[in-house]
Design brief:
Length: 224
Amino acid sequence: MFLTRRLLILSAAMMLTLSSLAQAPKGMGKSDPEAKKVLDAVSAKFKTFKAIKAAFALKIENAAGKVQGVKAGTVLMKGVKYRVSITGQEIFCDGATIWTYDVAAKEVQVSALDNSSGSITPQKLFTNFYDIDFLFVLGQDLKKGGKTYKVVELTPIDKTKSFFKVVLELDKATSVIMSTRVYEKNGNRYLYAINSINTNATVADESFSFNPKKYPGVEVIDLR
């Protein structure tokens, strides 16, 4: 599932509840308390949002910095529900079930949501994933487009992960993560940038479920 795995991030966007710093294995160091304050502010702000609708762009670069592809997408979030649409694929989650729809293959795979699996969902990116899975440090503020951004670098505690670093850029004025860059061990880099975001969107609950009647001819593969 390309998007579910790569959403490592939304950078999705996007973001992160905790009561203490992550307890990393002995010898791995500690997280930066100042970075924690920034991420906690993101988490607290996220909890005030009714529903979110955001448009984002995903750019993929190789180790040499050459752009391998660019895709545009949208994400909807409401409570534990989410829906991600990107070129050629849609992912629906109603909080219990996940539908991954491959447009070209005219196929949708259905699976049960497993909150204990360690998979990354858009909500986890806004809430608590960093507390137990990463060490994090605060970088220097970044100014661009007339705005100031806080920069936080995250390093996974689990060194078997396919990536070794994630860099977040947060709008200092709104405490919303506006871009995420994921660095993979093979040299590839994935940049998720938020182009627009509505944090008080009106989204119907049925938007988060795959309705076969609206997709005639699509094969349903139930993996539950």
